[in-house]
Amino acid sequence: MRGSTPTPSRSAPRRSASPPDGRADTVARTSGIAPLGGGWAKDVDVVRILVDALDAVITRMRQRIRDTGDPDPVSQDILIGLTADLEKHHWMFQAENA
């Protein structure tokens, strides 16, 4: 729309003590998600891998929710919303293999 002001996404960085390093190698190395093997995998195995990856991310997000409570409640609220979405998808994929 003409004249409208763009709004930042919910996950846009709010502040950082040090500049973030978003290079692919750094993100992959520090993500906490187990690396994938090469080649084909059965669908049941892929769903399990995805559930495990979501679990790892959710665990890290919950720690960040605790860490941001006092210094930055606005960021904490953003993290709570993002984590809720991740938990929803985790539950749906987990139910796929049940």
From TrEMBL:
Annotated region (Disordered), positions in chain: 1-39
Residue ranges, compositional bias (Low complexity): 1-21
All copies of domain Ferritin/DPS, residue ranges: 33-95
Protein name from the UniProt record: Ferritin/DPS domain-containing protein
Organism: Streptomyces thioluteus
